[in-house]
Amino acid sequence: MTRNLTHLERLEAESIHIMREVVAEAEKPVMLYSVGKDSAVMLHLARKAFYPSPPPFPLLHVDTTWKFQDMYALRNRMAEESGMELLVYQNPEAKERGINPFDHGPLHTDMWKTEGLKQALDLYGFDAAFGGARRDEEKSRAKERIFSFRTASHGWDPKNQRPELWNLYNARKMKGESIRIFPISNWTELDIWQYIHLNDIPIVPLYFSAPRPTFEYQGGLFMADDIDRLEKVMGKRPEITTRNIRFRTLGCFPLTGAVESEAKTLPEVIQEMLLTTTSERQGRVIDKDGGDASMEKKKQEGYF
Amino acid sequence: MDPIYKTDALIAEDIDAYLEQHQHKSLLRFITCGSVDDGKSTLIGRLLYDSKMIFEDQLEALQSDSKRVGTQGQEIDFALLVDGLAAEREQGITIDVAYRFFTTEKRKFIVADCPGHEQYTRNMFTGASTADLAVILIDARKGVLVQTRRHSYLCNLIGIKNIVLAVNKMDLIDYDQARYEAIVADYAAFAEEIGIKTFTAMPISGFKGDNITTNSANMPWYSGKPLIEHLETVEIDNTADQSKPFRLPVQWVNRPNLDFRGFSGLISGGSVKPGDAVRVLPSGKTSVVIKIVTLDGELDEAVAGQSVTVCFADEVDCSRGNVIAAADSPPEVSDQFEATIVWMDDDALHVGRSYWLKLGTQMVSATVQQPKYTINVNTMEHLAAKTLELNAIGVAELATDKPLVFEAYEDSRTLGGFILIDKITNRTVGAGLLHFSLRRAQNVHWQPTDIGREEHAALKNQKPRVLWFTGLSGSGKSTIANEVEKQLHLMNRHTFLLDGDNVRHGLNRDLGFTEADRIENIRRVGEVAKLMADAGLIVLTAFISPFRAERDMVRKMLPEGEFIEIFVDTPLEVAEARDVKGLYKKARSGQLKNFTGIDSPYEAPENPEIRVNTVEMTAAEAAEHIIRKLLPLK
């Protein structure tokens, strides 16, 4: 008797297969965990892949110190529930120089995230890192292999990617080189939401609408997650208004634009996403500096 | 231009009902391919646009990009939606395959936009390997081109059953029916030649949108379906693998504690239930599945396409690389095969060199013989060939160092498709499709003998070893090796010296100095050295042996610790100045080709067991240094 697998079942099986290949062939894998919805799905898939064992690698959070409080709370809870070791890395230089999104612009992402990630991978000697990037997010990601090779200095050479046939992954590399692996490459934003819905996966409450303290900044709407700290770096206390808002994507709270919304449940969030006319990353500043090839350039420099 | 595919009304009216419907949509993976400038990227851009997958902010960016760098004047250049790499946008070409996603009311789609240039064939093949359907584009002004044939051949080779022939840019030939029909007839003749049994042809314009979502008023003579409707309704047999015998290539052994041992993998064929009798290959041991474990509870049944963990009723040896199969219809096991190989690296195939071969979860060493022939994709002629260059497609025999569990590619993509990996650069250099095992592999067995290598060595009161001298011509290998052998002889050791020049007078008389011949030279010497070591001798070899891969191959033939690599590290200038045999002079003047150090590379050992040089030491001193390092000899 045959059974038609749904597209989500096919995607799930593919992602699990990828994770098991990495664990079997890499020396020291790690999962990059950013606490967003994509990370949530990736972590859930890892728990499925290795059950009843806990996933045989640690979670690594490359922290900028500017994430939402709700994100830190969920991060700690999920690490405990999954029985995995949680490593948190904050770039000491960025910390010392007080790098923040207001005074330092693109340097904020570069120092905390790109440099922080490189430092953390080198420090622990990880040779394979799982990331929750999807091909539908951005044009250069759409071109990236599932197993993406990085030189010893973490550079990506998009013009010289290894062929990747069927589901056969070549995980061999020179000493010093590393691999970024994207097990949810073929998932779309809708697939992620639907999977979270069907599997009851815990996500940060900020994805759902609620009355929250907000302020306007350079034409965008932001949440005042830590008003005292904002006042310190902005030089003045921002004008706070309470609005019903939620987030389509989560990053650093001063860099992640909120949307006014009444979507309080997952189906409502999905409904809103499907009816909206702008893309998911639109609320993020990171893709725009540097023009068209901004993400590609960041990846060549070592960003995820 | 309004998108023709409006948002599904159900989303606003009843989101739960929409999600329920969406969850059960089937998935079609397809590629667009064909020659350069046939409009592949434009077509995908059009599909995304018409299925409302382009958001306002992306559309705004697209409009400004189109004016700035687009190739369509003031109109929207859809290709810019897909060509995501800076180099692609600058050159207006597609280099690597891009994966895009869209959904209609009936299906979900993953489309891979493949590059048309021949030099990027490996990227096209990457996209094709996971596709259920291929849309082959033809520029109506140009007709069937070499790349149309190449891509059609590769699509058929890799097993894509559904082919759509999209004759594009019909707007540029005034929607001329006669021209369209001539192109289709031309393609049909070629398709039959290469074994494509059926294909669906349609006249379209990706740029203008003709016959994409609705039938075009410009071509009333076309009575078939528009492209999207065809993609939505074409029958895809995603369950075909489920009716095959059960196959589970083991990826990972799950062992959280002493009470649990499970075997994890992606089921590639058939289905499994608790109670099923299974056989573990290659050992052939049998057991019974007692449970199928998942995070969401145990399963009553699992089918091809699912990633699972199964447990056995008893402790049967099983590890990564093994295949768990239906007990009564297991796959074959062999170590010699015939296969079709597509070469994907700038560095051509080295016949006889050992590569990693990955098939399913198995990783073995493999050597490829000289190809029986390569295929000219334009004429379908079989051509004689000594090797496989970049993008060549050929048929060759190959041998593996360990038995492989396999099936013919046409029966199983998982157990019949493999990649070849260069052992030094780690690049994926080739992809292969197994045809069948060679019968000689099944008929040649190891004959056990009662006097083994331990007995031979014990009688000689020594530990057998292979002292492998490597270095440039004129570095002093033969002189030092001779000195070492003299001293070992005085110490009553049983030795034999295999010298490069001497062996070429006899055993390797038929070999020249091309790379392939040099590899075979070393392989034969390695096999002879191994037999002599089995006989208990201390073997000394003095060969330039310029390639790391071959020295490593010999190292792997011998038990751990018996291969001693001795690098005679004399600089090129010194060796050339000596020029004992006058060979450097000949090489420099061009009379001697493929001379190591001059026009053929020497890959120095990275971690030799012993390193000597003849600048700081005399031959006698070097020999003494080596002997001291070897002690004790028992």
Overview of the molecule:
The complex is a heterodimer of chains A (304) and B (634). In chain A, helix 7 runs antiparallel to helix 9. Mean pLDDT of chain A is 87; it is low at 285-292. With 304 residues, chain A is α/β, with parallel strands linked by helices. The radius of gyration of chain A is 19 Å and the shape is globular. Chain A has a 6-stranded mixed β-sheet with strand order 3-2-1-4-6-5. Chain A has a 4-stranded antiparallel β-sheet with strand order 8-7-9-10, with no helix packed on it. In chain A, 54% of the residues are buried. Helices cover 37% and strands 14% of the residues of chain A. Chain A has 2 domains: 7-199 and 293-300, HUPs (Rossmann fold, 3-Layer(aba) Sandwich), CATH 3.40.50.620; 205-283, no CATH class. The longest helix of chain A is centred in the first third of the chain and has 19 residues, at 7-25. Chain B has 634 residues and is of the alpha/beta class. Chain B folds into 4 domains: 9-233, Rossmann fold (3-Layer(aba) Sandwich); 240-326, Translation factors (Elongation Factor Tu (Ef-tu), domain 3, Beta Barrel); 332-441, Elongation Factor Tu (Ef-tu), domain 3; 453-630, P-loop containing nucleotide triphosphate hydrolases (Rossmann fold), CATH 3.40.50. In chain B, 29% of the residues lie in helices and 26% in strands. Chain B contains 19 helices and 28 strands. In chain B, strands 7-15-11-12-14-9-8 form a 7-stranded antiparallel β-sheet, with no helix packed on it. In chain B, a hairpin with a 2-residue loop joins strand 17 and strand 18. In chain B, helix 13 (477-490) crosses helix 19. Chain B starts with 8 loop residues before the first helix and ends with a helix.
